Amino acid sequence: MVYYRLASPNPRTYIGSGKVAEIKSAINALDVETVIFDDELSPGQLRNLEKAFGGDVRVCDRTALILDIFNQRAATHEAALQVALAQMEYQLPRLTRMWTHLERQSGGQVKGMGEKQIEVDKRILRTQIGVLKKELESVRKHRKQYRSRRVAIPVPVVSLVGYTNAGKSTLLNQLTGANVLAENRLFATLDPTTRRVQMQNGKEFLLTDTVGFIQKLPTTLVAAFRATLEEIAESSLLVHVVDISHPLAEQQIEAVEKVMSELDVSSIPKLVVWNKVDRVDDPQKVKLEAEETGDTICISALTGEGLDDFCNAVHEKLKDSMVWVEALLPFDKGDLLSTIHKVGMVKETEYTENGTLIRAHVPLRFAQLLKPMRHLVKDTSISQRG
């Protein structure tokens, strides 16, 4: 591992010539095959570094490494499409370094073999990128239709977000009995998974597990995983899961918040969950810090500790996003009344000659469904007096 502090990156080799020579010596001494840079390198920097280190040494930047990991983790057709698109868009400007062994120039105006091969490969790659984008757009439309059907069932949607390996999938499995892959490794989950959670008080919400974030997440991945990340924008509540036992927990929190700000979801209510509290040296101290922070719950998704507190906090947070309604339901709408009890918070029920008069906090989209039967709908700020 080599660390290097730079005022600004070298435009040719990212690092200085002295550090290039030092790394080359280490490569020869240790018989190194791959050199990984923890930052994104330009095509020119990659080409110059490989030339400096020797033709048999592969130079890999942060983006290429993450793409390789994503490629190994892609378990579904959608994830495979998303990763393939990101890889191709990453490779497109870097094709020139693949053909340096061929002739780049020839006499007169005739292009060299290498240059012609580059043009052919770029054209093929652009065509493949176009095909993948069309397939992903089809996936995006299908997911949008799925979300539309889900909106018709007015259960609040809670999305788990957080740094990779924070324990989001384990939390989903604990609460829902799902069998989502949950392993101690980076990016174990690439596809969003949604399951229904039934709380002890009979209330329900949908819980969605999303792809884990990471510091300096490549923009190509953010773009490729647009269909996945759109799930977050449709949420009633975001649950930011933090591995509080990790020594770099603060930096991971900042990385997640940075990506969230880029997704423009600041208007969605958020609940912070400090996970893996069973692994910290002083759990009681951490719990006291969480109480002082406010809107923070301590849990262990692995052991189940704190899950009741988590569900109660979700319940209270969802209430903030609801509106107050008074609606007269015909007696033949018993299923609707049952749904209100599941997804809303019923304040009062009164049986009249014409039907059941119900006063409750309900999700905004559900309030729209009740519009023909409503007596009164107030805004959220007024409703909280109810």
From TrEMBL:
<feature type="binding site">
    <location>
        <begin position="300"/>
        <end position="302"/>
    </location>
    <ligand>
        <name>GTP</name>
    </ligand>
</feature>
<dbReference type="InterPro" id="IPR025121">
    <property type="entry name" value="GTPase_HflX_N"/>
</dbReference>
<keyword id="KW-0547">Nucleotide-binding</keyword>
<feature type="binding site">
    <location>
        <position position="189"/>
    </location>
    <ligand>
        <name>Mg(2+)</name>
    </ligand>
</feature>
<dbReference type="InterPro" id="IPR016496">
    <property type="entry name" value="GTPase_HflX"/>
</dbReference>
<dbReference type="InterPro" id="IPR030394">
    <property type="entry name" value="G_HFLX_dom"/>
</dbReference>
<keyword id="KW-0460">Magnesium</keyword>
<feature type="binding site">
    <location>
        <begin position="162"/>
        <end position="169"/>
    </location>
    <ligand>
        <name>GTP</name>
    </ligand>
</feature>
<feature type="binding site">
    <location>
        <begin position="187"/>
        <end position="191"/>
    </location>
    <ligand>
        <name>GTP</name>
    </ligand>
</feature>
<dbReference type="InterPro" id="IPR045498">
    <property type="entry name" value="HflX_C"/>
</dbReference>
<protein>
    <submittedName>
        <fullName>GTP-binding protein, HflX</fullName>
    </submittedName>
</protein>
<keyword id="KW-0479">Metal-binding</keyword>
<dbReference type="GO" id="GO:0005525">
    <property type="term" value="F:GTP binding"/>
</dbReference>
<dbReference type="InterPro" id="IPR005225">
    <property type="entry name" value="Small_GTP-bd"/>
</dbReference>
<dbReference type="Pfam" id="PF19275">
    <property type="entry name" value="HflX_C"/>
</dbReference>
<keyword id="KW-0342">GTP-binding</keyword>
<feature type="binding site">
    <location>
        <begin position="209"/>
        <end position="212"/>
    </location>
    <ligand>
        <name>GTP</name>
    </ligand>
</feature>
<dbReference type="GO" id="GO:0046872">
    <property type="term" value="F:metal ion binding"/>
</dbReference>
<feature type="domain" description="Hflx-type G">
    <location>
        <begin position="156"/>
        <end position="322"/>
    </location>
</feature>
<dbReference type="GO" id="GO:0003729">
    <property type="term" value="F:mRNA binding"/>
</dbReference>
<dbReference type="InterPro" id="IPR042108">
    <property type="entry name" value="GTPase_HflX_N_sf"/>
</dbReference>
<dbReference type="InterPro" id="IPR027417">
    <property type="entry name" value="P-loop_NTPase"/>
</dbReference>
<feature type="binding site">
    <location>
        <begin position="275"/>
        <end position="278"/>
    </location>
    <ligand>
        <name>GTP</name>
    </ligand>
</feature>
<dbReference type="Pfam" id="PF01926">
    <property type="entry name" value="MMR_HSR1"/>
</dbReference>
<dbReference type="Pfam" id="PF13167">
    <property type="entry name" value="GTP-bdg_N"/>
</dbReference>
<dbReference type="InterPro" id="IPR006073">
    <property type="entry name" value="GTP-bd"/>
</dbReference>
<feature type="binding site">
    <location>
        <position position="169"/>
    </location>
    <ligand>
        <name>Mg(2+)</name>
    </ligand>
</feature>
<keyword id="KW-0963">Cytoplasm</keyword>
<dbReference type="InterPro" id="IPR032305">
    <property type="entry name" value="GTP-bd_M"/>
</dbReference>
<dbReference type="Pfam" id="PF16360">
    <property type="entry name" value="GTP-bdg_M"/>
</dbReference>
<dbReference type="GO" id="GO:0009507">
    <property type="term" value="C:chloroplast"/>
</dbReference>
